[in-house]
Amino acid sequence: MAVLGSGKANGGCSLLHAAGLGYGASIGLDLPIAVRLLDKPSKRDVDDPDELLPAVIDAWTAAGYQTPNGLDKSELYWAVMSKIPPRQGLKSSAGTAIAALKALSDATGIDVSNEDYVAMAAQAQISAGISLTGSIDDAWACLTPGWKLIDPQAESIAEGVLFEGNGPNNDDWLVFIVCREERTHRPQLEDFAPHTATYQKALIALQEENEPVALTWNGRATVAVMNDVRGRKITNDAMLNGARAAGMSGSGNAIIVLAPVVNVPTCERLRTILNNHNDVRKVIETSFITAESEPVDEDATS
Questions:
Q1: Domains along the sequence of the chain with CATH
Q2: Model confidence pLDDT, tens digit, residues 190-203
Q3: CA torsion angle for 216, 222, 227, 230 (degrees, to 10)?
Q4: Is 113 exposed, middle or buried (0-12, 13-18, 19+ CB in 10 A)?
Q5: Element holding 79 (H helix, E strand)
Q6: What is the pTM of this model?
Q7: Residue 13 belongs to what H/E stretch?
């Protein structure tokens, strides 16, 4: 078995759900993923229930790129090593698509622009039926530092970038990822319409480059969209116990909680409360992928 190519990306969280107002923004989290392209099946089973990886190859060839060594799609195999909890709204699909596309680029020696990576990742997710909007903002977050406010209806990927920011200073924030049971359903576009006023507050916060406030307003709106009573309680409890921001990511079920690093008692209190909560399966402590931060350790998943 030969490794034809490899690629790396990261997970992320939502700052503005793209279905809320038609504009989306996400930021990367230090949740690494590594994907390898193989010429024989991996010894480990690949968890790909939505068949995203075959859709990635289809998007690659539809964009005019050749497969490595002229191999057919049926002759290409994958190995995935991921620290991104799946089906939690933490951009595992976008991260997988970006890392797989990088593996194809590595295997063929073809240089691919960031815009083309994002376009192909969006097409693969739409084809696999796992995205309402193409998740263009998610793909950017899994590929590049900081965040971009995206208009997914723009004529091109480049024209769709309306505004961008470096992201919060990681010296200021401890990021808790509160993982719960995997989501059982995805909302429909019409479910978002009653909550546009709340999403508008998240958009205003983003325009002011106040990411924690955007995360909180976006999360409140999405919890309402999902009618997630338990998620709302976790979010409110976190804020009452000293969190500066808390909100659901994606369409759930993970909740992102931000605590000020300098306030050690608050961090400890939140750590205890979240880890002992009956509805919480796992709590991950991590940081954002910002324009000033170091890149994800490429050996983290090897």
A1: 3-165 (3.30.230.10), 173-289 (3.30.70.890)
A2: 999 999 999 999 99
A3: -40
A4: exposed
A5: strand 77-82
A6: 0.93
A7: strand 3-16
